[in-house]
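Q: Okay, next protein. This is Ras association domain-containing protein 5 from Pluvianellus socialis. I've checked the sequence twice, so it should be correct. Can you predict the 3D structure?
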Amino acid sequence: CFQNVTQTVEEEKPEPPTVQEIKQKIENYNAKVTNCLLMKLNDDGTYTGFIKVHLKLRRPVTVPAGIRPQSIYDALKEVNLADMTDKRTSFYLPLDAIKQLHISSTTTVSEVIQGLLKKFMVVDNPQKFALFKEMRKDGQVLFQKLPLTEYPLYLRLLAGPDTDVLSFVLKENETGEVEWDAFSIPELQNFLMILDKEEKDKIQQVQRKYEKFKQRLQQTLKEARGKPG
């Protein structure tokens, strides 16, 4: 069984590689790629590639109310649909949601978080979220929070394309207690509405469970009365 362990100690960074070393690493990386998601080295020494980010958010996010999803034309024109309305609503993103991003070697963790929020039209403060790298070692699943200045594509390059070795996860930026002051009044009101609905649903589930149990008991007693002895 895998166990989840969150590491808080930051690793020491080695010396930055030379352009020739980067070129060799990219060639080795692309040789292991089984799809078309290759890395490309630019003339200036930077490189581009793809990363996949798993969204594992346990709390609802805030999005504009009544706004359609962003189209490719909006993205090309850099249209921010969230600015088109002041109305807000909250909902839960699917826990199994995965977003693929095409980024550069100069793209930081902070920019990845902001890009993900923009793609899902999430208007919450980016500081409420954190990017983690997920690794598997000795039967454990290890999560390590990445600094905002880290470069995810370089980590992908070092680990190779196998997501079982390394994957990226977007989670809440846990700092112990929830900092409720960071949420706006509409967000807090939406949280209360969601919690109230979940409470009512849970009560109904318990009531249905014991109602069925009561019916089975009554049926068993009725059948037992009709039997001799």
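A: Here is a summary of the prediction. The chain is about 35% helix and 25% strand. Helices lie at 19-32, 72-76, 109-119, 152-159, 185-225.
Q: Noted. On to the next one.
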